[in-house]
User: Fold these one by one.
Assistant:
Number 1:
Amino acid sequence: MSPQRRTGLGTNQEAVRRHNLGTVLRHVHSAGAMSRAELTSRMGLNRSTIAGLVGELEQLGISERAEPAEGVRQGAGRPSAGVRVADNGPYVIAVDLGVDRAVVARVGLGGRILQRAQAPVHADGEAWQVGAAVASLVRAVVEDAPARSPLVGMGISVPGLVRRSDGLIRLAPNLEWHDVSFGAIVLAALGLDVPVCLANDADLGALAEHTRGAGVGTDELIYISGNVGVGAGVITGGHRLEGAGGYAGEVGHLRFDPEGRPCHCGNRGCWETEVGAHAIAEAIQCPADRVAQLGEVLDAFDSPSPALRATGTALGHGLASLVNMFNPRTVILGGYLRSLYMLVGPEVNAGLADRALPAPLESVTLTLPGLGADSSLLGAAEIALEPLFVDPVAALGTALDDVSSRLAG
Amino acid sequence: MSPQRRTGLGTNQEAVRRHNLGTVLRHVHSAGAMSRAELTSRMGLNRSTIAGLVGELEQLGISERAEPAEGVRQGAGRPSAGVRVADNGPYVIAVDLGVDRAVVARVGLGGRILQRAQAPVHADGEAWQVGAAVASLVRAVVEDAPARSPLVGMGISVPGLVRRSDGLIRLAPNLEWHDVSFGAIVLAALGLDVPVCLANDADLGALAEHTRGAGVGTDELIYISGNVGVGAGVITGGHRLEGAGGYAGEVGHLRFDPEGRPCHCGNRGCWETEVGAHAIAEAIQCPADRVAQLGEVLDAFDSPSPALRATGTALGHGLASLVNMFNPRTVILGGYLRSLYMLVGPEVNAGLADRALPAPLESVTLTLPGLGADSSLLGAAEIALEPLFVDPVAALGTALDDVSSRLAG
């Protein structure tokens, strides 16, 4: 719908109202409980329109009245009551598929994790076995969901390349998956028909950190995911960098050293051969079966070894290429890179400063995820919630209630 | 202005009308002469609103009536008259500042180059001397401008890093400029007060190719500028990738070979040390004073030498990093890279195919600029014309007419 179509054409009034309804909800979802005055100011609509929209969201069971004492974000003027997301409102299932474990959560509006469960995944497991394990975790997290809370959809974070058009996993190198329609596999194991979205873990980490983590208020950020392999999610101009097919951000395969080690992609000396989990594990003589838990292994170090310091420098050198290319304001180091940065931050910063151009260097900050280890999980929740912000009435129309008993049957 | 503000609030009707006026103009500027039916369909407004907007553009002297025989783009139904940009309508000055020469053009709506002039620039010239040379070229190209055609502004393409907030040239390495306010220098030399915008040459090349060159209809493209140094302009999701300060796209300084040659940026083995003009000139034993004309030098080759073939492979290898990072649909090779690609296209393609990941590789095409050597020049015109598409009434209100006699005075 073009903006022009919204200007007063009667046939579009309903579409405009639903769009505004979704926008109110997006504000409350992103920024938390908010007074009507604040909503009026943010959306540029008049007070009676806002009151009508808020009333409708309450009737739909999506939001509830919030008192000033509950920390309602206020606009100008005296403190007033406002709107917050409902306690038993709609929710989504978020899945963070890792190389060694799957985490599944029931997540409500506002990014609230209501229930979570996790289980090991075997890297040499078949996709259908992993799908069945994820389905079991889903059953576990919806068990205590209130019967009248509707399930809007499911989002799945994948450590690999996901085709945007249909969510096909083109390649998940550390799971050794090629062209796997994992969404359908999980639905088949569940026997449930809900909308499913899949996306790359780093892209989802960037999305969640931008919405409610270390990247709030920054429209130029990169989230680097260390999840055995290394990938990047990029937000530029406030939008996700997706590329033609949804594959953008494969920074692990930036050329780093043409004389370097062979990479699983078939090349030699990709950045991942220096800062990927396998390379770091080798450098610190970590056993192969602990590679997928590299973050925990690194957290146990009191001080960095010379090999880790060298890895920190290599991380900084590669980040310099990204800073020269994207001119980000914030670079967030997630997954095991978070643990690495806590150990060798000075080496990373020095490596970056040594190789980045002065102009983009002067405004960039390296930082840790605001959402800890949950960035990609909460990003998966964000893409599943998205239909609620586009048109809450339509999204609730297709949502499923009483999911627990449906799954039990 | 948020979309919500446009929905029927009386105080915003004038803003909406001007926005629509600019949008009509943008369509005609980008796609060429167009029937009212086609405009009605593209903009989703009703016929009488379109008729009113077209009438106002004619009154403003920006557009003229076009007959079907003039190649008017038609919507459904029988061919009808339409609208095209006026012959003596508003124009801008576009400046393509190169390392060895400056090109200046008077450019009208539709990207029509109405008059052009160029002069050599000495790489060791002071900024004020270059500014004076550019001012002389401006005088030359406005000489024959009709007195009643208004000058809207000036756009300048720069082979370097330009700060978006104020157009300061932070670094133009091959001109050896640091922190030069070149826009003010040119205005001082001209003695004329017009809006001036500066931007990086590759960014402008990408913009122009996206608007009317090899990237029309592609919202994911990279334009690589070979202009002594190497830089990239990236369009993603239909928007320019700018970064926090406007410095994004410095792909010449991607790490390519840590054992490689020293780069002027202070590092070693940047991609530019393999595919920059100085490296190629050395490889083909081209004299140093011809480096800035490397494109012409390469055009004179009948067949590529082994050194050039190796450069082609290095170009492909670096492009693979960009394809992995951005997942573009189209990569346009501009400047001397255009000449290089015509000589060693197979090596470039093979180098790319050898190193890019299969998923992003399958949808990417390497191609030559649709605008030949004028991509950055026409991109400079685009940014200078932009105010006309935001609010034509306001832009014309501050435009200067009879510029030729003002400059003569």
Number 2:
Amino acid sequence: MTRSERGRIRVAVSTVILTMRRDRGATPRVALPLVRRTRDPFRGDWALPGGWLDEQESLEEAAARTLAETTGLAPSYLEQLYAFGAVRRSPSRVVSVVYWALLRADEVDAQSAAFEASGTAPDNVAWNDAESLPTLAFDHNRIVEYALWRLRNKAGYSRVAQGFLPPAFTLADLREAYETILGRRLDPANFRRQVEAAGNLIPTDEFRTGSHRPARLYRHNTDVALADRGPLSPEETRTP
Amino acid sequence: MTRSERGRIRVAVSTVILTMRRDRGATPRVALPLVRRTRDPFRGDWALPGGWLDEQESLEEAAARTLAETTGLAPSYLEQLYAFGAVRRSPSRVVSVVYWALLRADEVDAQSAAFEASGTAPDNVAWNDAESLPTLAFDHNRIVEYALWRLRNKAGYSRVAQGFLPPAFTLADLREAYETILGRRLDPANFRRQVEAAGNLIPTDEFRTGSHRPARLYRHNTDVALADRGPLSPEETRTP
């Protein structure tokens, strides 16, 4: 290998898009879209949405493009998860930079329906429970595990759970999102005390009414950043 | 470009090594090693230690190798900071995966002295105050800014500050590390109350004696993880 070729490695991007799915009456679950591969290696196996980084696009642009091409999904923001670069993670040497985002189920449904209606949607995409995945191509099982670990971890110190919620929500909605992320039940009274003490919620004057007693709606205090947005700057944002 | 060449982008690694430097009597400061470039582009400018990713090494191995080759430093653990991939961050297209670590000043001194004694140390490395850097090559000023932001941010919810401290330390040592990271003074009584309430410190039976009244030494509770160690696994760890 000549000196000028050093560092010439194939670079790919993938995305982990997490949503909270609720089947009628069942406990909500974290779900993500997968794409069945139509080419070698791992032809026929499920994989994360993704593709090659092109010369004239940033990493985040490549992640957004390949996600939109396969799933029609367009999260308002993709956060960089990790760069995976083990030597043998693919038959040829590939570094994959992985992005992730949380989407509400109603956003997923609206974007998916619009994509179907466009006539350009491929038929090899399916949503899967994050906790019961098949064996995925490459190291994608490990990547999903890491995304779920980061999600549970961030739930402890950031407002990441609100990525699953509409702008106004009840404390029960918020607790359910945390329970889904953490995979365990939380005591309602303790949960209420903790979120009220944290001071990240702003009570509204609105209530949700229905079969139960009216529940106050809350909004998140947007003075606190939702997520680590990375070293954003004019250079890192999308080029026109 | 043929299909088989898609994604062929040059991949580099860089490292941000942070230490806490104390000049006699002065306020301690965060410092990092820089390397003066001997080749184009940016010949003669200062840059982070780093180099090209080779075909047969993982990202972390490349970061550790290039750091050791230039500075002789060998942190016990390098954490991935971020993958920088803006299209115009370098004259040719380069994706840089950046790692970071905290080193104690005495570790830096011992490793640097051993490297000097080996006779292989290059003469183009210097330590700089993180808060008063010259204009660095590429987007390296932005990378350092991001590393410092992450350090300050992590100080709020993790034990990152202990990366600057020996295994046993006084509360004044710990407060000084936090003050250096955050760039502001902290009230000693409030600080003591907060760290005691957090329960991450284990008091020892040892005291530091000297010109002041004896101060109890503490250790960190190692049941809590020091840092996000990434998706570590047999595949991601170094190959033999």
